[in-house]
Write a structure and sequence with these properties.
secreted, 349 residues, ENDOU, globular, alpha+beta, 32% helix, serine-type peptidase activity, 21% strand
């Protein structure tokens, strides 16, 4: 098509594009559009979370789930499909011979608050620690001791610790798992570039906020993967590598479990009770034998697609549900929310 000359842009090009483009103050023709800081309001799938939607977003783009119009939303079927692709892409996961698990006594959910140690032996009989020399594992483990577990005490990162966050993100982005996730989210118009995606991951997972007093004492990564103590109880702590390393040091005492997943290979899921150096965890669900990038990918996927909601996935043909919650009290960027928590809630929904 011949380009319109400058003096006739308003007349000729305006007529040509009238049916394809609308003013930035409306969502007409803009549902799922990538974020553009120059627009006064937005029509992407997270604008409701950020509080910056255009006035007609609800009528033109939103459905009952709080995301885009049904033709634009990430559907349950799409979530199940991408989670299966991520599951198959996890080549860094543990093999059967890499972990010997001793789950011992299973209790009923009604007994989980009893704080009774029903398992005399450790949960992990053996772990092939050569796994931990893989780049993503090594980068992940370097992050675990960068936090004070008690809320109410501000976190202050050294230059080295901040660099370790960058190394971790860099290493996981090299994996097939995270490439699958980015490709999916890019196709869904959630991110326009890989750098935008990585920058958002760093903020949502590692950005600090306050769970206690005024101190910036917590982050999504610390809560979910490293664990915290708040009001005399263990909160978060949903990672098998952290559990194994703390159990090996004598700081974690495995008490029992209420659920063991249906998978006959890794990753598997276990919902357990334990004592962490004097503090009790009533129910702590965790993937077992998964790579760090696998967990990071699934939790990120669910937070982006279903923040504050149950996110229904599929792993190896079995259903799995993950619950995430955003931190509502503070935001970053243009009103974006940090991850408050993410964990497996069931594999039967």
């Amino acid at each position: 098509m011949r380009a319109c000359v400058p003096l006739t842009v308003a007349v000729l090009c305006g007529l040509a594009w009238a049916g394809l483009y609308s003013a930035p103050s409306s969502c007409q023709g803009r549902c799922r559009e990538a974020f553009d800081k120059h627009h006064p309001c937005h029509c992407n799938d997270r604008c409701q979370e950020f509080g910056n939607c255009c006035k007609d977003f609800e009528s033109l783009c939103a459905n009952h789930e709080g995301f885009s119009h049904s033709s634009d939303a990430i559907t349950k079927e799409e979530l199940q499909s991408i989670s299966e692709k991520i599951y198959k892409a996890d080549v860094n996961k543990a093999q059967k011979s890499d972990i010997v698990l001793n789950s011992q006594n299973r209790i009923s959910p009604s007994e989980s608050g009893d704080q009774v140690d029903r398992c005399p032996e450790p949960l992990f009989t053996y772990v092939n620690e050569q796994l931990f020399s893989k780049p993503t594992y090594a980068a992940f483990i370097n992050l675990l001791n960068n936090y004070q577990r008690a809320t109410g005490h501000g976190e202050h990162f050294s230059a080295q610790q901040l660099a370790e966050q960058g190394v971790f993100l860099s290493e996981i982005m090299k994996t097939a798992v995270m490439k699958e996730l980015y490709s999916f989210l890019h196709h869904q118009n959630r991110y326009s570039s890989e750098q935008e995606f990585v920058d958002d991951l760093k903020n949502m997972w590692f950005g600090l906020y306050s769970r206690g007093n005024e101190e910036a004492d917590s982050s999504g990564f610390e809560h979910v993967f490293s664990g915290e103590i708040k009001r005399g109880k263990v909160t978060g702590f949903h990672n098998w590598i952290r559990f194994y390393l703390q159990e090996k040091e004598g700081l974690v005492d495995y008490y029992s479990h209420i659920y063991d997943g249906p998978w006959d290979s890794y990753p598997d899921v276990l919902a357990m009770q334990f004592n962490w150096d004097g503090y009790y965890k009533e129910v702590g669900s965790a993937f077992i034998g998964s790579s760090p990038e696998f967990e990071f990918a699934l939790y990120s996927l669910c937070f982006i697609a279903r923040p504050g909601k149950v996110c229904q996935l599929s792993l190896g043909g079995y259903p799995l549900a993950i619950q995430t919650y955003p931190w509502d009290k503070t935001t970053y960027g243009n009103g974006r929310k940090y991850i408050a928590t993410a964990y497996v809630v069931s594999s039967t929904q």
